[in-house]
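Provenance and format

Records in this collection were gathered into a single text stream. Each protein contributes a sequence line and a token line. The two records reproduced below are adjacent in the stream.
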Amino acid sequence: MADQTIVEALLLGILEGLTEFVPVSSTAHLLLAGHFLGFESTGKTFEVLIQLGAIMAILTVYFMRLVRMAAALPSDRKTRRFVAGVLLAFLPAAVIGAGAHGFIKQVLFETPVLICTVLIVGGVILLWIDRLPLKPRYTDIMDYPLGLCFKIGLFQCLAMIPGTSRSGSTIAGALLMGTDKRSAAEFSFFLAMPTMAGAFTLDLYKNRDVLTFDDAVIIGAGFVTAFAAGAFVVKYLLDYVSKHGFALFAWWRIAVGTVGLIGLLLLG
């Protein structure tokens, strides 16, 4: 295994961590970067499996809060409702992801023009939502009704299309249904835990017979940098979006999608 591959894996891991929890589509960034770098992973598993680093980043930053929730679960009704809401929101993606896994990996992951186009369209939609004069009814994730959680989970299913963004679709859906920006982003963090863990487990199981030791080393390298970059983003993102909204991420999506289309046109 070439040293250059390890370097690429480290760089892609940083890219995963920086983009997983912001509404720009980490999968799109990884697939496009891998396309132009000539980076190929067995069964396109690298792009999914290094999400374990991002999962660990959330668990690290939210560790004490998760411990308090676990302790309160038997006796506190609000905590039980919140946990049930997260699991309910996770359910649609679990069903669709398991059923459409092959199509997503073999068709959608292999269509860079679609990915770039979705990035641009999603950026325009995010700009529109960010500028709407929305009046939030829910500002605390612990108060989200179960029906609202399930509807956010339906929005998350849009992220099956690379370029849509898991966090982007959940945040946009939450904002349109009456949440404020900070709580929408925070609920997206919590929903990421079962969603990304489920995607990791399914992809690892589906590719268990084709992965090699070299793949494990590359994935491990990406995991480390994804963890470090993800922890940084989770720690500071909520304060940023509370003050500045999502316009920066929308324009970034449009720029990356446009540059990607130009690159595909010129380089193939």
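Adjacent record:
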Amino acid sequence: MESARTQGGKRDRTMHGAQNRGTAQGASEELQKISVFMLKHQIAGLPRNYELVHAAFTGGNSDLARELATLGPRPAQSALDQLGLKHRLPGHCGVSTERLQEETLKTLSMLSDHLSLGLTQKRAFTHSVESVIRSIREDVSVGIDQLLGELELLASIAGDMVKAETALSSQVSHGLESLESADRAMRAAQAAMKRDQLTGLANRISLFQTLDEVHADASPAKPSALVLIEIVDLAGLQHQYGDEAVSKLIRGLATIFRKAIKKHDFIARIEADTFAFVFQGINADEAHIIAERLFTTAENNLVFASETSHDVGGLPLAIGHAMAHEAADSAAWLAIAKTATMLARQNPRQPIIGYKPGPRQVA
């Protein structure tokens, strides 16, 4: 018994080691491909540019890939930023937010300068009025002509001040409109940073925020489950059917999943090939049942022709799930769900695997 357990442990370690080596090799090749493309096209090595090229190569977004290609060699950074903003990539949305914040500060500074100028003019007018009153009090014999002259001077100063106040009112109004416009744009940019451009679902950033919030409140008495659904060999599907067909498939899958869950359940697309779901108030057995239902729903609604025949088959999926209270933190929660998904991917006969703490960590 002990020997069999030891041999099983060795097999598990070998399996994990092979998987890690394969994952590292794939990531290395992907990074090399991106670096070569950026070097060839003389694209600056900025983080947001890496994100843009990575999304074009691996995000299943044929429109982005095509539009990036049309920019040709040595594309301007402004063109890259516009493209990234159009496709709502988080890095470029962040740059847009920073720019809007700078414009907001400039507008506030301008309004402050104009208000300061208006205050200076008011003080000058008040000082002139005080001077005329003091002059009259000190010399009660002032003639009517001199008094009228001083009053005309005050009227002239008051007229100039009214013009300045009118201009200031207009400038303040335009400034407020600018601030409101910038606020709307920043809110839109911040919302876009949390959305997947291809499917409109929440993205990885939104998932991390949700995991932090849910894990903080999770307990055995208040359980929450994370379910990951991975499209097996997405790169192979892209090679076989083309980027446009796979993009449509992913959008179709997103629609199916969204309709298959309740409104308060959370769904996100966190990788080109991976969807994430967060379900609150369910236990591990219920999470497994939901995972089976999602698998069956996808299998019944999405079919494609196999490469070797004209028959059709269900979309190959691997599903892993884990409970929040069984993880030390939100990062560990995601990690163990990924491990369960990896094991499901390696065993097509058991495409749905749930994490269980203890010696036997799958169910």
